[in-house]
Write a structure and sequence with these properties.
The complex is a heterodimer.
Chain A (H helix, E strand, L loop, with lengths): L3 E7 L4 H14 L1 E11 L13 H4 L14 E10 L6 H4 L10 E6 L2 H9 L5 E3 L12 H10 L2 E5 L1 H5 L1 H18 L4 E4 L11 H10 L4 H8 L1 H14 L12 H8 L4 H8 L1
Parallel strand pairs in A: 1-2, 2-3, 3-4, 4-5, 5-6, 6-7
Chain B lengths: L5 E9 L5 H4 L2 H24 L4 E6 L4 E7 L3 H7 L5 E4 L2 E4 L1 E8 L2 H22 L3 H13 L5 H17 L1
Antiparallel strand pairs in B: 1-3, 1-6, 2-3, 4-5
Helix pairs in contact in B: 2-3, 4-5, 5-6
The chains are: A alpha/beta, B alpha+beta.
InterPro entries (chain B): Pop5/Rpp14/Rnp2-like, RNase_P/MRP_POP5, Rnp2-like_sf
Function (chain B): Component of ribonuclease P, a protein complex that generates mature tRNA molecules by cleaving their 5'-ends. Also a component of the MRP ribonuclease complex, which cleaves pre-rRNA sequences.
Keywords (chain B): Nucleus, rRNA processing, tRNA processing
Chain lengths: 269, 167
């Protein structure tokens, strides 16, 4: 059984609250979390910031409940797009974009949803759950997305917070399920407070309300999340052909100063 | 004649309020869960779930509760548990959340799971504890954790709670 994955922990500038969220996730039994950085073009042109590293956040990573492994922290970039030109940033080889593990898009209209499903190089397509879906989800675009291994993300915290949001969440989820028949769904939290987060089994059971079958709901919090991670990894490694590993730091530091001297010693010998 | 099948939910109540422990009682949990079922599934759902619905066990120190309901309707109960955001007790609302640890068919399996879970929690405490006295107390209670006869179990369980408070 694969570990549980929560791919949406909103990034906040206060490290303390972020730390509390990750600790709560570890306590609930999630073995991988992704910190989510949102870029919204409608607000203003935002810079892509460098994602926070796990060593910056914790001196020692919290242990996952029921396992003896520390939690794994990834980074994820979400683009809120309302115009096709906004997606160019994904292709640009700008400095900070390569540090992100997962890319997601939040399409605002039906045309962009189709573009995101068929051509964009992303891992996740977010479905709006806080208002009535502004477009119809079409079967051809969803089928292409499933073939390409792109997953659809549903967020459950708005449903916990508010009753009207809950209605929109459930109705939007059900309309999506009619098209994709429970395949390629990822359930994630987007919790701002630790108390809003729910355990993985509870979330899997929420899938029952969203029209998922039992096995699909369980996959939505575990194996599908892992598939998204691997899809993101495949982009970095050119479909898994090339894999670059960072050199461990200690030999690096040793090398830096005596780099010129070392060959000489070899010559002497 | 076939016996009625039940499902038992072993839940952990998570809260960051310090006064929360004192006000945690069976009645408050019972009312909260019933309210949330009514909110989620309406009158029909509440009627289904209230057959044999009861709070079987409650540990205020660790925040563990054991809920019971009929097997046929346990999905209705389970799907409304995540929507609990506060516990109302003596006209005060305490923010909290329910985390389901285990769903079992008998109280016995839930008890076994809980002992296992608590001993794991104690080990986690042992890893983080600082003073020597705490370490001793936790080590003793870890060793005393085992699945034994009913009467003995209760006393030992209390012991481990005390040490959890100390740490």
């Amino acid at each position: 059984m694969a570990g549980f994955v929560d791919l949406n922990i909103p990034h906040s500038l206060e490290k303390e609250s972020l730390r509390k969220l990750v600790e709560a996730a570890a306590h609930l039994g999630y073995s991988t979390v992704a910190i989510n950085y949102v870029i919204d073009y409608e607000e203003k042109k935002k810079e892509v910031v460098k994602p926070i590293s796990s060593s910056e956040l914790f001196t020692s990573l919290p242990m996952v409940q029921g396992k003896s492994k520390p939690i794994k922290i990834l980074s994820r970039l979400t683009l809120v797009v309302s115009d096709p030109s906004h997606c160019n940033i994904l292709r640009a080889t700008s400095t900070n974009i390569k540090f992100y593990d997962i890319f997601a898009v939040f399409p605002k209209n039906g045309k962009l949803f189709h573009v995101a499903c068929t051509t964009l190089d992303v891992d996740l397509v977010c479905i709006n759950v806080t208002e009535k879906l502004p477009f119809y989800i079409k079967r051809p675009s969803v089928n292409v997305a499933i073939d390409r291994g792109i997953y659809f993300e549903l967020v459950y915290v708005p449903a916990i917070k508010d009753s009207t949001m809950r209605r929109y969440t459930i109705s939007n989820a059900l309309s999506l399920m009619q098209i994709c028949r429970g395949k390629n769904i990822v359930l994630s939290s987007a919790a701002e407070k630790p108390l809003q987060m729910r355990g993985p089994y509870d979330v899997a059971n929420l899938g029952w309300l969203f029209g998922l079958s039992e096995s699909n709901a369980k996959a939505a919090v575990s194996t599908n999340g892992r598939a998204v991670l691997l899809h993101g990894e495949a982009r970095k490694t050119a479909c898994g052909v090339v894999h670059t590993v960072k050199k461990p730091r200690t030999p690096d530091e040793d090398d830096s100063t005596p780099a010129t001297k070392r060959p000489k010693w070899h010559c002497d010998e | 004649m076939v016996r009625f099948k039940n499902r038992y939910f072993l839940c952990e109540i998570i809260s960051d309020d310090s006064r929360f422990q004192q006000c945690l009682d069976e009645r408050a949990v019972h009312n909260t869960v019933k309210n949330v079922i009514a909110r989620m599934h309406g009158d029909f759902g509440l009627a289904c779930c209230s057959i044999a619905f009861s709070v079987k066990y409650l540990n205020a120190y660790t925040g563990i509760v054991l809920l019971c309901c009929r097997k046929d309707f346990h999905r209705l109960l389970w799907s409304s548990l995540p929507f609990i955001t506060y516990l109302e007790s003596r006209n005060q609302r305490y923010p909290c959340s329910f985390n389901t640890l285990h769903v079992g068919a008998t109280i016995r399996t839930c008890q076994k799971f809980l002992i296992h879970y608590n001993s794991n929690q104690l080990l986690a405490l042992l890893r983080n504890c600082t003073s020597e006295a705490d370490r001793q107390a936790i080590q003793e209670s870890v060793q005393s954790c085992m699945f034994v006869e009913e009467e003995q179990f209760h006393s030992k369980d209390e012991e481990s709670d005390d040490s959890m408070q100390m740490a």
